[in-house]
Amino acid sequence: MTVSLVLVIVMSAMYACAVYLLLERSLTRVLLGFLLAGNATNLLILIMVGEAGVAPIFDESIEASEYTDPLPQALILTAIVITFAVSSFLLALIYRSWRLANADDVSDDADDLALRGGAVLIAAEETLPESSTTDFPLEGEESR
Amino acid sequence: MLVLLALFGIAALLLAPLTRALTNRVFLVAALVPLGAFGHALVVGPGILSGGPLVERAAWVPQLQLTLDLVMDPLSWVMTLVVTGVGALVLLYCAAYFRSDSEGIGRFAATLTAFAGAMYGLVLSEDVFLLFVFWELTSVLSYLLIGHYQGRRASRGAALQALITTTLGGLVMLVGLVLLAQQAGSASIPVIIAAAPEGALTTTAIILVLVGALSKSAILPFHFWLPGAMAAPTPVSAYLHAAAMVKAGVYLIARFAPAFAETPSWREILVVLGLATMILGGWVALRQTDLKLLLAYGTVSQLGLLVVITGWGTRDAALAALALLVAHALFKSTLFLVVGIIDHGAGTRDLRALSGLGRRAPVLAAIAALALASMAGLPPLFGFVAKEAVLHALLVDALGGADLAAIAVAGVVAGSALTAAYSIRFFWGAFATKGGVDDVEDLDHVGPGFLLAPAVLAVAGLALGPLAALADAGVAPSADGLPAGVAPSAPSAPSGSGEVYHLALWHGPTLELGLSLLAILAGVAIFLAREPIARLHARVHSPVSASELYWDVVGGVDRLAVRVTSLTQRGSLPFYLGVILVVFVAGTGATLLIGSSGPGEVRLWDTPAQVAIAVIMVASAVAATRAQKRFTAVLVVGVTGFGMSALFSIMGAPDLAITQILVELVTLIAFVLVLRRLPAQLGDRHGSTRKGLRALIAVAVGATMGVIALVAAGARTEAPISLAWPELAYEIGHGRNTVNVALVDLRAWDTLGELAVVIAAATGVASLLFIRGRDDALPRPARGLVRRRVEQRLDRVREQGRPGELRNAWILAGPSLDPRNRSILLEVVVRLTFHATVVVSIYLLFAGHNLPGGGFAGGLVAGLALVGRYLAGGRYELGAAAPVGAGAVLGTGMLLAASTAAMPLMLGADALTSAFVETELPVLGHVEFVTSTIFDVGVYLVVVGLVLDVLRSLGAEVDRQADPVERAIAAAGSAPAAVSPPAAAGPQSEGRA
């Protein structure tokens, strides 16, 4: 099986552009990166068909190896539609994020930032054996 | 015994519900179970002591060789008596200790009973792993019991501390037990004892087991959890921390001592740590002002002594150890119960606040005095008998020349002196009349029910002294058979000549008696010198406290967790993604470099056209990264999609080419629908930071993927299975289009899964957009006002629409549109092409089996027809074109596909098996039908549903949310008029078209 160098180069370039976009904070760019990555992945699967052949429409006069491999095609067909479904979902997310927060970017997690800033200090529950000298505290002393 | 064990469990389950009816009398019921176990042990006792052990076996997990084997031999018998006897009395005592309205007594009674059951199982387990299960069970239950006062911070902290310490030890012990069982070839304790393996691994295993035992029995350096555990209700202390749980470690040592006392470092570890614990505990006890803490440190001290003598491993030592264990359980439980009564009555346990109790509660004082005398080792109490035996066992070896024994004797005498001193301090602190302290006046009357348990325990300690011979008969059998001594000269000592040591009140004027006397006199002296000793205490404050160390470690772990979290959880999505990708590049790259078979053969291109397409696609992809306007970016990404389509068609994949083009169109439209609500510019605000680093990662990933493609191609050695597909598709699937048959027949399971994903995504889109449900919660003012406003608007629309009434005829929703937004050309085109498009889509669906097309392509074409209607006429037009909900379309599609999968099952075939029918029909001629076509119809409907859902959500719903009238309605809190748009009157207006 041989691969077409041109296709490998296109695929690599699309992956690189996709990753560059995916590492952005803008949700729209992330979605564009997702679409590019989807196309690049379909291309990767397409490369695996090897030599191009005739369309796999069965004809008794054609040898089986002359068809373009139908297995990767079935995978790609499925992938195309799923990519569309998921990118619609991402679009809906973008719209909602814009409508509710007027923002089109992934912001950092506030809790993680607070933790990094040292705002969260976990106090260990220390026991002092001397802290109580009775099992029967008066009302109100209970919750110390 | 198994039945009794089950009874403990059942009782624990039933007690909590019973509490509602019985309140604090539930403890009387609970006490019956351990009492029954105690009675059972008494009855079977003579048989066990004279004959063999009582054995009961049951299978548990046979696959893991885990068994529920219970064995009651003399040692277990004594432990059972202690555990169940004290357990029953403490439960009895609880009935008086807790008020009927105390919080959580049902839970408490259940936990305490379960704990008694766990102890019962622990001392009877024959299998080390069963023992471990009960061991951990006691740790967990003790956690619940110590933390009984959930509202108190100290209580929770102490419970956690005890749990962490004992389970840490328990886990270490488990490793040791596994090693031991592995070496002995069996998990049964008698087998392990009989095999008595030796060697470095055994020594390691034994030391690991000892860590568990020492942590459970609160021996240095694990002793700190026991004083902390005094936050528990006092009955818990009386049971767990005097009689039961802390004795588990001692029991384990006693179990293994016969086989492993000669293991290197066993004796040294136990003697040194035991003595240190005994002296430290006694010394610190002298400082305590809380009576309960005084007892707690006293217990730590006594446990040290127990560990020393139990670990010594001779016959006399084992006898002494068991006697001391029983004596300690009796007097320490008594004392805890007495403290509980004082606390209950006086409201404090602080000996600085207590005065004059001796006169007000003479019976209580007498009971305490008995127990204290036993603790201090005064004759004729059982504590005295036990201590004599301890001294004897050690003296035999010390006189025989064993240095360690001599050290032990000295340590025990010193520890006993401290014990005597804090015993006196307790009595003075609790009952003496002190100058300068007000007498406790308001001590409640102490009823006989309250006094019963401590009285019984104290009297037992008194009675066993004179009856030492009886005690000896019970305790000695478990000690017999052990070596007489460890010193080189010991074998010729008394036992060798046939004279065996027995527990007795009077052995004559022996050295042991002299040492006892010395210890007691020293104890009195220490008590009398309490003022200078208090000053010494204040000065000699230990520089390192184990408890502080514990909290330092716990705090350190917490801080480390925070640091690790803040180091790894940066909270930034690009950061996480970047890390994942770098790991991907590094990991995959390394594998490719080291282990790959090298790239496959490479050809430049199939046709030169590929090069042209490739240039366009790469240029578009790069342009997408640089685009500043949203719409530009979307367009150039779309170009790569169309490029994909071109590649597909060049490479002999027409199905893919068609589907890709259709999807690109629909995606583009969906984008436009959303982007019209977003600012046009993709601003710098959206973080184009660290461009260089991102580009570096991007290039690395792209290159890695390229190498993967080359290597993967070279890795293929077998002919692909798909070579057989075209013929299979035709013969079995009755379709010439191999790809389509693969989707709906050969690989239909995959497609079914994909449909589920599509439905999930479509539902997700809808649920993100339709937030109308929230409006119900808002206030609903002035319904009439809203309706009037809507009608005014609709009137205005109608007036504007009237002059060009003919124009409205092209599409149904024409009149509802603002004339300025209308395109007559578009309306005409849509009007003319809609039905044709739908027909084409159905043709694609059915022709797809033999020609390019199929459910996916057909569904997308039908979806595009709907897109056209929506673009021309807006949301009302869409409603008229697709009067059914998207959910219904999706659901029907899935139902069809799934039923194609399920139907063959009912007919006895495999799921998704297809059937083939061909017949001659009058007009259509020769007709072939494969059942997988029904599956394809399902695919078609799901895809139509997906497009419809996208249009309804991203199109119609976004419109509605942007519509000023709708906004007014949403603000007003209801939308009654808006749901009946003009287009709903579609059928009537259609006549005009």
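qc> Residues 124-130, 140-144 of chain A have pLDDT under 50 and may be disordered.
qc> done
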